[in-house]
Amino acid sequence: MSSVCLSMEGGAAASTPAALPYYVAFSQLLGLTLVAMTGAWLGLYRGGIAWESDLQFNAHPLCMVIGLVFLQGDALLVYRVFRNEAKRTTKVLHGLLHVFALVIALVGLVAVFDYHRKKGYTDLYSLHSWCGILVFVLYLVQWLAGFSFFLFPGAPFSLRSRYRPQHIFFGATIFLLSVGTALLGLKEALLFSLGDKYSAFEPEGVLANVLGLLLACFGGAVLYILTRADWKRPSQAEEQALSMDFKTLTEGDSPGSQ
Amino acid sequence: MSSVCLSMEGGAAASTPAALPYYVAFSQLLGLTLVAMTGAWLGLYRGGIAWESDLQFNAHPLCMVIGLVFLQGDALLVYRVFRNEAKRTTKVLHGLLHVFALVIALVGLVAVFDYHRKKGYTDLYSLHSWCGILVFVLYLVQWLAGFSFFLFPGAPFSLRSRYRPQHIFFGATIFLLSVGTALLGLKEALLFSLGDKYSAFEPEGVLANVLGLLLACFGGAVLYILTRADWKRPSQAEEQALSMDFKTLTEGDSPGSQ
Asked: Superkingdom of this entry's organism (chains A, B) (predicted)?
């Protein structure tokens, strides 16, 4: 669909598919609205955020939405957006966004465990917390495996090309599970505090429901951009040349298979 | 990866990838355990199911898990499992499984609205119900569009091949949203009835959390089987011959592109 032209440096610079920037812009609009609306919900109805008080809990949803939903989603889109940069640059950006996401999510986790400890609440009894721990452990393992295989020098190319599809599948799955876990957490927060007022269409309930739909829509938008076959990042001449040296690579990863 | 041999009738019968049957068997084990465990949860802790009493509500989770999770998931897998049947047979099976899923889901919807009406409860205020209505409407639209484009004779081949990737994307997305909505519903049912007992690790809470993880795992297993590139259904000779007649089809749907 998109034409391929050779650049001066000998790398193949593919033109960007016409509709891709609009879809990416839309996903970013959804993502930023999501973060803003999470902030608005916590500010308007939950008293805002502070570390050294009961408001410490509120750092949890905000950090998780910024880290494990918005930044994680954007890290997945890096390979679609930066199509013509060197693969290594894109990789480093992908890894860095995931580091930011991981650190912010860690702050969010500390916030909720610290809050529970101070209040004497039980930890890890709910479905939200079980899914959350599962997501966080998977995310950490995926990050370490991704770093070892793709960024740390030395992993053989044949191993990289075998692990690559698994990395992509688990990356998308962990992202979707993060969105699902956020929905469960939102629901929990609403049922704990709103009680009967939820069924009376209180403004907080309606706002939080819209926030939930936005979460699902952001997940859907990222998934759509990721899975459009003709939007995949084309192989570049440098990688193609490299892959010629490794017979094992040519089968599943040939330039023509994109 | 998988070798292709011409059968006696002249159709191309591709061999089944070696690992596929194990993954499908595993997904079915997960799916059946999921349905059995939903039944066990409702039977052991919620008094079972009956239409003409307060137990009418319990028909809702069971019908939704059977229809919009298990049967919908299996309908998506039909094209991976029946690789060597005629495309039309597989299509009809895909459509029929979705009809069963739709009818069972409709019974589940009637159960909860009827229960709410009898009890005087408010309808459609929660995030679970908003997501649920969204899923059901999308599912209905997807079914009608799928029927009109692919089963009803007369849709031009060029239109079919343009709509096909959208149908696949929205099919997977609606399925995942169904799983997410089921998780929200489960969480709602637990928080409504267990209250403080949830944090005391009551058996019902633990069982329902395991049920929630099973739901997520079934979603993940179906997604994995669907997205493995080398497990996609190969084009068959009859379709290949047909596609020769329609130049518009050959670009994105050629036999070699699988």
From this structure: Eukaryota
How does pLDDT run across B69-109, given as a tens digit for each residue?
Answer: 999 999 999 999 999 899 999 999 999 999 999 999 999 99
Q: Which contiguous run of DSSP H or E holds residue A13? A: strand A12-14
Chains A & B: contacts with CB separation below 8 Å: 114
Q: How far apart are CA B225 and CA B136, in angstroms?
A: 24
Statement: residue B161 has pLDDT above 80: yes
Q: Does domain A36-229 have CATH number 2.60.40.1180?
A: no
Per the rule left: phi > 0, alpha: psi between -120 and 50, beta: everything else, A195 is left
B34: its two tokens = 């999921």
Domain ranges of chain B: 42-230
CATH of domain B42-230: 1.20.120.1770
d(CA B155, CA B249): 13
**Which residue in the set A176, A191, A209 is minimally distant from B188, CB to CB?**
A191
Amino acid, single-letter form, for residue B15 = S
CB B184 within 8 Å of CB B127:
yes
Q: What is the rounded distance in angstroms from the CA atom of residue A47 to the CA atom of residue A42?
A: 6
| Amino acid symbol at A228 | R
**Chain A residues with CB-CB distance to B192 below 8 A:** 191
- Report the run of H or E that residue A14 belongs to, with start and end: strand A12-14
